[in-house]
Design goal:
Helix content: 10-25%
Structural class: mainly beta
Distance between the termini: 40 Å
GO molecular function, one term: hydrolase activity
Keywords: Signal
CATH architecture: Sandwich
Number of domains: 1
CATH class: Mainly Beta
Number of helices: 3
Strand content: 35-45%
Number of strands: 14
Length: 224
């Protein structure tokens, strides 16, 4: 009985310290207030693990929360080798009748409810931790901001296949940074997206392939 009391007290103190530090834990028991946008992939939470699963024929799908301005986000992630994924930050949802986006690679308006903006990459091909301008410029922010020197061989090798990988993303003012397993993988500034959604991506797949899964756990968020 005494041991149980001590354990309960330690747990309570830990939660209290977390609250005082401003950290929130997401997806402990469900999807919280997040919403699925842009595609038909499915999201479930079980034992504190958020699992996104591809759906044949669906385009890119996102589980979106926000909007947010300055923040720090940490999580553990694991993905099928065949599946490209990522986490959107300060991203926006297109609306019916929106004009063509400035810098758009396609030169066409986006369909309504399409999430677009900076995305921190999750992939096994050496691009993990770099930021991609999803559904807009269609290229890497390291190229757009001439910060490719950050993409060292260590950065390209930071993500481990088949394992849980720790991500830390910090966005404050115009400054964006990411770290994968403690290795800096992006560090740039850009002023065009001061606020927006965080979105956990399940990438679209070729018809007749899959299903594939991407999983997140220990998702923690703190407003700055």
């Amino acid at each position: 009985m005494k041991n149980q009391l001590i354990i309960s007290l330690v747990a309570a103190l830990s939660l209290s310290a977390q609250a005082e530090d401003g950290w929130q834990t997401w997806f402990k028991d469900g999807l919280d207030d997040a919403k699925v946008v842009s595609g038909q992939a499915t999201y479930t939470v079980e034992n504190g693990i958020l699992t996104g699963t591809t759906v044949d024929g669906s385009g890119n799908t996102f589980l979106a929360k926000g909007p947010f301005k300055d923040f720090e986000l940490e999580f553990q992630v694991k993905t099928a080798d065949e599946l490209n994924s990522g986490v959107q930050v300060r991203s926006k949802l297109a609306k019916e009748g929106d004009p063509v986006l400035e810098g758009s690679k396609s030169g066409k308006p986006l369909p309504a409810d399409r999430l677009y903006g900076p995305q921190c990459e999750i992939a096994v091909n050496g691009t993990a931790g770099d930021f991609y301008d999803e559904a807009r410029r269609g290229t890497w922010w390291s190229i757009l901001t001439k910060t490719e020197a950050v993409r060292t061989e260590e950065a390209k090798a930071a993500f481990k296949k088949g394992e849980w990988n720790h991500y830390r993303i910090v966005v404050k003012g115009d400054h964006y940074q990411s770290f994968v397993n403690g290795v800096k993988t992006a560090d740039f500034t850009q002023p065009n997206d001061p606020e927006g959604y965080i979105g956990f991506q399940v990438h679209g797949i070729k018809k007749g392939s899959g299903p594939f899964k991407v999983q997140w756990k220990e998702v923690k968020f703190k407003a700055l």
